[in-house]
Design a protein that fits this description.
Main location (chains A, B): membrane
Largest sheet of chain A: 2 strands, antiparallel
Subunit structure (chains A, B): Homodimer and heterodimers.
Family (chains A, B): Belongs to the Casparian strip membrane proteins (CASP) family.
Radius of gyration of chain A: 30 Å
Number of helices of chain A: 4
Helix content of chain A: over 70%
Membrane topology (chains A, B): Multi-pass membrane protein
Oligomer: homodimer
Number of strands of chain A: 2
GO biological process, one term (chains A, B): cell wall organization
Chain lengths: ~210, ~210
């Protein structure tokens, strides 16, 4: 009786040990697979983030340069005056050139951090840094684009109530270039929104 | 010999069971403490988030209402014309009123989700929803504020190059109100930036 019971006891622990070790191995494997797939999807996001940044640099650089170089000289002039439109005739356009150039510089500087997130897809700090600075910079980008858009609208349509006459009838090419710059900067806003959402998804607990 | 070995075998499993159960209890306690402290700081963030939203509602409502009610009638008039300035004289100000009203409505609708994050501070989905919509809405808010600011600047200073004369010399009170609205909307931008950063910190793995 006693022998039987001990035999049973001997049997039990060995099976328990086996099964528990089996479970441990299984869970370890599962954990490894989960970590790898989580890291993989996060790395995919990080690569997409990097590519978006490069595209956004192209958009903001285009916006800033097109606005900076936008000028038009009318083919007629008086004895004292030559009619010329330039980006620095309007303070809002000056602000646009400076602000969008700052945004492009920030994007350039953020590329190394984006590369860090590709190399270490599960690191939290670089993601958080990118998200916070992206949020601040997108407001600068939006402010520049919206302010310039308001002035471009005025230049196209004028305003009867305030007696501000449209200038685009004379300076059509200038207005065309300035509008292009505003559109390019607006496209960059959408890139930034996607960048922020990518960072948020990469930050969240899997 | 056989009896001894079985006795030892009986002894081993009991100690193993004891120690393993001890470890499990310890880890459970540890996990519970970690969850409680993480949840506590996240709940604090969620409450701060809620209060910021209420303040941002106040700021955006103020901005929208002040702009909407901004008008000034000059004390002199001709036979055909009464000189009056109104927010809907300028399309940018109309856009401002509508956009900032949308922002205020969104903030109001986001309050229940913010309450969910207070009740369930470790829930990921409501945080992610708030962060994504906050990001989209902050660009709308910034666009409205920046466009109105550009026009207010023009109303104050005019522009010699385009022959747009300042109107604030005549409509001083109107310009004052419009400027107040722009400042209130700009304050809301800062609230939004803090809200997005809060959501990001709450989302990240502890």
């Amino acid at each position: 009786m006693a022998k039987e019971s001990t035999t049973i006891d001997v049997g039990e622990p060995s099976t328990v040990t086996k099964s528990s070790s089996h479970v441990v191995v299984k869970e370890k494997k599962k954990g490894f697979v989960a970590a790898a797939s989580g890291g993989g999807s996060k790395r995919g996001l990080a690569i997409f983030d990097f590519l978006l940044r490069v595209t956004a640099i192209a958009a903001t650089l285009t916006a800033s340069i097109v606005m900076f170089t936008a000028q038009e000289t009318l083919p007629f002039f008086t004895q004292f005056l030559q009619f010329q439109a330039n980006y620095d005739d309007l303070p809002t356009f000056q602000f646009f050139v400076i602000a969008v150039a700052i945004v492009a510089s920030y994007l350039l500087l953020s590329l190394p951090i984006s590369i860090v997130t590709i190399v270490r897809p599960r690191a939290v700090a670089p993601r958080l840094i990118l998200l916070i600075f992206d949020t601040v910079v997108v407001t600068l980008n939006t402010a520049a684009a919206a302010a310039a858009a308001a002035i471009v609208y005025l230049a196209h349509n004028g305003n009867q109530n305030t007696n501000w006459l449209p200038i685009c009838q004379q300076f059509g090419d200038f207005c065309q270039n300035v509008s292009t710059a505003v559109v390019a900067a607006s496209i960059a806003i959408f890139f930034f929104i996607i960048l922020i959402i990518i960072s948020a998804i990469a930050l969240k607990r899997p």
